Amino acid sequence: MSTASRLRPAVLPWLRPRRAPRLGYCYSTENKPPMASANEYLEKLQATIQPRLTPVLLKVRNASDTLRNITRDFNDPKEAIQRAGVALNQLTGYDHIEKVKQQVTDQAKAFESSRDQMQQAKRAYESAIDTRSSTQREINELLQRKHLWSGEDVTRFTELYRLEHEHSQREIHAKETYQQAEKQMDREYMGLAQSIMERYHEEQLWSDKIRSVSTYGTWALMVLNLVLFIMMQSIFEPYKRKRLTDRFEELLIAKVDEEEAKFRGLMQDRDDTQRSVLNAVNELAAAVASGNQQLESQLKLTLQPSSSSEQPDLSPTQEQPPPTTTTLPSDDSLVMRKRDLVMYSVQSAVAGGVIASLAMFLWK
């Protein structure tokens, strides 16, 4: 069983096509029932969505497993933070970029190692070339004086010829090693360049994905804000306004009741004051009326002549009686009575002014 088949998630239950009920007859291909077309559409939809959902489901499953491990082994905060970062990287797909980065680092190390090996092989090849060149130079010197060879020169020539053959084989082997090291260095360099390009490509894809996710997130936040604004304006604000209106009405009714109670008290006080003023005015008017009657009676008594001073007959024979004298009231008593009259008038004027001012105040 392959890794892809083991990692392939189960088919989502809502994406499974429902089989059409088996009936006693078959439909023709020309006249397909609606259920068959729906099943075909669901199969196509499943075939289209399943490859896209598989990596997402794998990432979500790995992230959930990592978060479960974090919540289960929450001993060290630093370790928990590291695990949370790993889970976030798995969820966003940045773990693949981390793997590519590690691959680039390993490839760079391999390239450095292959370059060092190539340098060593190059030095060994150059050393083999120098050794063979020195051997060939010595052989050429011996060949130039071949007619003067001695026994030692023959032995030396034979030995040099054998060494030249060994050095030639060693040079060929060093050359092959150098060429292989150079090819290996080229392969490592190409692998490094490929890994760098892959890292750049993956980072570009990840940044595009994050940018698209941020764009969709921004749109989602805008839609959420719009929905919240509509809900606030259509549900919460009317409810809040109704509560404020009810509260204001309650406070207004309470304040009106309080003001009415105060106004009733003031009206009661005014009525009491008005009654007292009216009583005082009535008493004052009665006193003024009684004083006027007494004054008029006294004036009548003062100004009326006595009954004995009637006009007598003017007969000459009848004697005139001696004149009678009556006592007039003194000026002091008249003055006091005038003062009382003035006081009564002033009091009545004051009472009338008070009544008029109260009437104007109440009318306002």
From TrEMBL:
Keywords: Coiled coil, Membrane, Mitochondrion, Mitochondrion inner membrane, Transit peptide, Transmembrane, Transmembrane helix. It is a multi-pass membrane protein. Residues 300-312 have a biased composition (Polar residues). The keyword Protein biosynthesis does not apply. Signal peptide: none annotated. Residues 300-331 are annotated as: Disordered. It comes from the Eukaryota. Residues 101-145 form a coiled coil. The chain crosses the membrane at residues 216-236, 341-363. InterPro entries: MDM33_fungi. GO terms for cellular component: mitochondrial inner membrane. The keyword Transit peptide applies. It is found in: Mitochondrion inner membrane. GO terms for biological process: inner mitochondrial membrane organization. Homooligomer. Belongs to the SHE9 family. Required for the maintenance of the structure of the mitochondrial inner membrane. Involved in mitochondrial morphology. Causes growth arrest when highly overexpressed. This is Sensitive to high expression protein 9, mitochondrial. It comes from Lichtheimia ramosa.
